[in-house]
Design brief:
By secondary structure, this protein is of the alpha/beta class. The chain contains five helices and four strands; from the N terminus they run αββααβαβα. The chain has a single domain, classed as STAS domain (Transcription Regulator spoIIAA, 2-Layer Sandwich), CATH 3.30.750.24. Helix 2 runs parallel beside helix 4.
């Protein structure tokens, strides 16, 4: 199975928000797919970027690095950045590594920022 089959990325615009929905596995083999999405002009135009992790079933250290790089990229662009909770494995990795403490987590991709 190739990287494309292991990770599906759906980018959609919702008014001033870009939602990047991930399904499958985010690891070393397919992290460049997400990196390319994060660097896209479509994402750069949004006021807010939401990384929807609800369909993500697996995450490794390379995936963590890409998520943190996405947060940094958004910060540099002046964009709001948030993630939605992922699977139990994803949430555990975010917690154990402390990465979750550095990410704004919202319950769903459509949740309003306060």
């Amino acid at each position: 199975m190739g990287a494309i089959e292991q990770l599906r990325i759906d980018l959609r615009q919702e008014s001033d928000r870009a939602v990047v929905k991930l399904e499958g596995e985010l690891d070393m083999a397919n992290a460049p797919l997400l990196q390319n999405t994060i660097e896209s002009s479509e994402l750069a135009a949004a006021k807010t970027v939401v990384l929807d992790l609800q369909g993500l079933t697996f995450l490794d250290s390379t995936g963590l690095r890409i998520i943190l790089a996405a947060r940094e990229q958004c910060w540099r662009r002046g964009q709001e950045f948030a993630v939605t909770p992922g699977s139990q494995q994803v949430q555990r990795l975010l917690s154990v590594t402390g990465v979750g403490e550095h990410l704004r987590t919202i319950s769903s991709a459509g949740e309003m920022f306060v």
